[in-house]
Write a structure and sequence with these properties.
There is one protein chain. The chain has 369 residues and is mainly alpha-helical. It folds into three domains: 59 residues, no CATH class; 104 residues, Orthogonal Bundle (DNA polymerase, domain 1); 176 residues, Intergrase catalytic core (hpI Integrase, Chain A, Orthogonal Bundle), CATH 1.10.443. Helices cover 50% and strands 10% of the residues. The protein contains 17 helices and ten strands. The strands form four sheets. Strands 1-2-3 form a three-stranded antiparallel β-sheet, covered by helices on one side. Strands 4-5-6 form a three-stranded antiparallel β-sheet, with no helix packed on it. It has a two-stranded antiparallel sheet with strand order 7-8. A hairpin with a 4-residue loop joins strand 4 and strand 5. Helix 5 runs antiparallel to helix 6, helix 13 runs antiparallel to helix 14 and helix 14 packs across helix 15.
Length: 369
């Protein structure tokens, strides 16, 4: 490497990656190239030096601390959905706690290496599902990508960290439970008889395939009986996951909604309170009732479906039913998915249904004649 360029490579005892030392405009810059091969490390060092010569201060800006970067990142996330912020905050909190425990000396973002993240991955796999770990790694990468775009760091050390494969994730995922039409009938009858106060909420869940927060924050002004639709819109305590949209209402559902006593602005109430509303005294800034989850487990156990433990699976059941009747494109529109591949994950067609409909394709009969 030419001596006059002001770059030197060296190795530390505690790392297998080549480190760079760059002297530029009287300022010294040090860091990891995140490369084990010397030739690749030289190329990376030259790339950093070239960036310095084009825009002085980029690598200096790359000395941002982990704490400062996280603070800036959450300022950026402040306009995102509350659930998104909550999820990313939990992911990053887990990583920081791990780094402080395992690598207490690191302070800067650039000191986080792929090996550290691989260690975190191995550590979390002992106590979390592969899906959870996979999502956490994706969350870290999102923050590093964001920092790269804003020149807060000069390299993304997580770019070389491999995500868990789809096969690895599927091996530990809890299988989705789907209710048949007969089981849905039992669910409706049992709920209406034993939990009439939750009956309207569960029915709207089942007949619209709406998301939890869409229903918890639903107000009467969102319900248009004349046009038979529900409007999902932005509110103080709610940001729609896939932008504002409308949900068509089944005639039976209109009857159920009209029968609900109006106790305030919200359609669904937990006693005198809505199921979700802004509350600054709560750590998350919002109050959310867990009553629908607890009672769902009791109902499902009573009708012989003890493994049906997630309310979101009602959305899967609804998607499967309407896809069988009207096709996947119709299901996508009703569910509010921007990508039909997401809808595909919600539809669960049994073998008998596939066999029955395959035999109905007359063109295949003509081919085999």
């Amino acid at each position: 490497m030419p001596k006059n360029i002001g770059i030197r490579l060296y190795k530390r005892d505690d790392s297998e990656y080549w480190q760079y030392y760059i002297r530029y405009q009287g300022v010294t810059y040090r860091g990891s190239t995140n490369e084990k091969d010397r030739k690749k490390a030289e190329d990376r060092a030259f790339h950093i030096q070239y960036g310095l010569s084009r825009h002085a201060g980029i690598e200096k800006a790359g000395n941002i601390s982990i704490d400062e970067c996280i603070d800036k990142y959450f300022e950026y996330l402040s306009d995102f959905r509350r659930e998104t912020i909550k999820t990313y905050r939990a992911y990053i909190k887990n990583l920081v706690e791990f780094l402080l425990k395992r690598y207490p000396r690191i302070k800067l973002m650039k000191e986080i290496t792929p090996d550290m993240i691989e260690s975190f991955k191995a550590y979390k796999l002992r106590e979390c599902s592969r899906t959870t770990v996979h999502n956490q790694i994706k969350g870290f990468k999102a923050m590093f990508n964001w920092a790269m775009e804003r020149n807060l760091i000069t390299e993304n050390s997580l770019a070389k960290v491999r995500n868990l494969s789809k096969k690895q994730i599927r091996e530990t995922q809890k299988p989705v439970e789907i209710l048949t039409l007969e089981e849905l009938g039992k669910f409706v009858d049992y709920t209406k008889k034993h939990y009439p106060e939750l009956y309207p909420l569960y029915m709207v869940w089942m007949y619209t395939g709406a998301r939890k927060n869409e229903l918890f924050t639903l107000e009467w002004k969102d319900v248009d009986f004349k046009n038979k639709i529900i409007r999902i819109r932005y509110k103080e305590n709610f940001i729609p996951k896939t932008d504002e949209r409308t949900l068509p209402l089944h005639n039976r559902l209109i009857e159920i909604l009209k029968a609900i006593p109006r106790k305030g602005n919200y359609v669904f109430m937990d006693g005198k309170k809505p199921f979700m509303y802004p509350d600054k005294t709560k750590s998350k800034g919002v109050y959310e009732s867990h009553k629908p989850y607890r009672y769902l487990a009791k109902i499902m156990k009573a009708i012989g479906k003890p493994n049906f433990t997630r309310i979101h699976w009602l959305r899967h059941s609804y998607a499967t039913i309407i896809a069988k009747e009207k096709g996947i494109k119709f299901a996508q529109e009703v569910l509010g998915h921007t990508d039909i591949r997401v809808t595909m994950r919600y539809i669960h067609l049994d073998r008998d249904y596939l066999q029955e409909n395959l035999n109905k394709i007359k063109a295949l009969d003509r081919i085999f004649k």
